[in-house]
Write a structure and sequence with these properties.
Cytochrome p450, three-stranded antiparallel sheet, globular, heme, oxidoreductase, metal-binding, iron ion binding
């Protein structure tokens, strides 16, 4: 629905400028100073840029996390009907549209994703990475995005979920379609997204049916256990959760690994320090996420009329929480545009978000990052980018991710 938000003629910030994704921070600093709660006609959304407001909104029960459904509801009735499968599957992801069921879903996951269970993945992550690096070095060329980070993250999450790891190419192809739902999805994107959803659902359904008879110590097995809270998942519901993990659980991690390596290429002093002292990796990873996180923003939808800093927001309106702006707010992070891998407050970054809908697999993502950076920095001390400029592509709104990251190594 079109917003009738109050005019803000004193502030005109173009959030659709073609080159904005390359460096949005000068504009975001201005917005935070002049209009921290700003209605963008380009996005038909409110935009929050302060750390305090973003954190409060992430915890606010009045804001729905299934804002993406609005994109479907704005389409003609025939398109809405045609996109029924996409809507059903998306709404089932983690039962996000039902706070009580989502809380039970998280409780189930926490019983499975214990610190011990996550740490037990370390040898497997190391083995997968070693295999991918060996193949690249045999070829004599390496694209870290497509040869290493993306297949690594997808293979790891496939194994944790309990689906066949040898189908990584299928998962990657479908996930790249489905992830467009997380953008400001237009009609064509939504239909591509559904195409990926249906292909992946058709592949996973017989696997789930078979696993009813052959339980395992993975997420599929956890979803099928007799649950003490009385939560029972149908096969279709389990398929939806598998798709969620294969999309969300892979995409953010893979992009953060690539972003982090590019950050180290751009900051050789930080790279040298991290290479000399790998114990700095946990804090350095938080600082990389703060400096350039894989998720630039998330969207919420107001379920009731509410006010933020005196701005009246109506029920049904979209609010873009600019995580990238919150992570560069000088009130939370002094000298925010400077990378400092020893920054004391780095762990306050909101790249994984916070609150009841924060990233469910962040412990696994952190472990993958430790293995990835420790291995690459130790094994390839002269690793360097092959191309003169990073191959960035836009991920609306405000985000960017690397299409390729070709490197030279000795």
């Amino acid at each position: 629905m079109a917003s009738t938000a109050p005019s803000q003629n004193n502030h005109a910030f173009d959030l659709r400028a073609p080159s904005l994704f390359l460096d949005p921070h000068p504009l975001l600093h201005r917005m935070r100073a002049e209009a921290p709660v700003y209605f963008s006609p380009h996005l038909d959304s409110w935009v929050l840029t302060s750390y305090q407001d973003v954190c409060a909104a992430l915890r606010d029960p009045r804001l729905s996390v299934v804002e993406e459904v609005k994109r479907m509801e704005a389409l003609p009735a025939s398109d809405q009907l045609a996109l029924g499968a996409l809507r059903r599957t998306f709404l089932a992801w983690g039962d996000r549209g039902n706070p009580e069921r989502h809380a039970l879903f998280l409780k189930l996951l926490k019983r499975h994703f214990t610190p011990h269970h996550v740490e037990a993945q370390r040898p497997r992550i190391q083995e997968i990475l070693g295999r991918l690096l060996a193949a690249a070095t045999r070829r004599g060329e390496m694209d870290v995005v497509n040869d290493i980070a993306h297949p690594l993250a997808m293979t790891v999450v496939a194994g944790v979920t309990g689906v066949p790891e040898e189908e990584v190419d299928l998962y990657l192809r479908c996930s790249n379609y489905i992830s467009q739902l997380l953008e400001m999805g237009d009609r064509d994107q939504l239909f591509l997204c559904q195409r990926g959803m249906i292909e992946l659902s058709d592949f996973l359904r017989p696997i789930v049916e078979r696993r009813r008879r052959e339980r395992g110590a993975d997420l599929l097995g956890a979803f099928m256990e007799a649950d003490p809270d009385g939560v029972h998942f149908s096969d279709d519901h389990i398929v939806a959760q598998c798709i969620m993990f294969l999309v969300v659980g892979y995409h953010t991690t893979a992009n953060q690994l690539c972003n982090g390596l590019q950050i180290l290429f751009d900051h050789p002093d930080a790279r040298a320090r991290l290479t000399a002292d790998p114990a700095l990796l946990p804090n350095a990873f938080d600082e990389m996420m703060r400096y350039h996180g894989a998720v630039a923003s998330v969207r919420r939808m107001a379920t009731v009329d509410l006010a933020i800093r005196g701005q009246q927001i109506r029920a049904g309106e979209t609010i873009v929480l600019a995580l990238c702006a919150a992570n560069r707010d000088p009130s939370a992070f002094p000298d925010p545009d400077r990378l400092d891998i020893t920054r004391e407050e780095a762990s306050r970054q909101v790249g994984f978000t916070i609150g009841p809908y924060s990233c469910m697999g962040q412990a696994l993502a952190r472990l993958e990052a430790q293995v990835f950076f420790r291995t690459l920095l130790g094994r390839f001390p002269r690793l360097r980018p092959r191309d003169a400029a990073p191959d960035w592509m836009v991920f609306r709104p405000l985000g960017r991710e690397l299409r390729t990251l070709r490197v030279l190594f000795d």
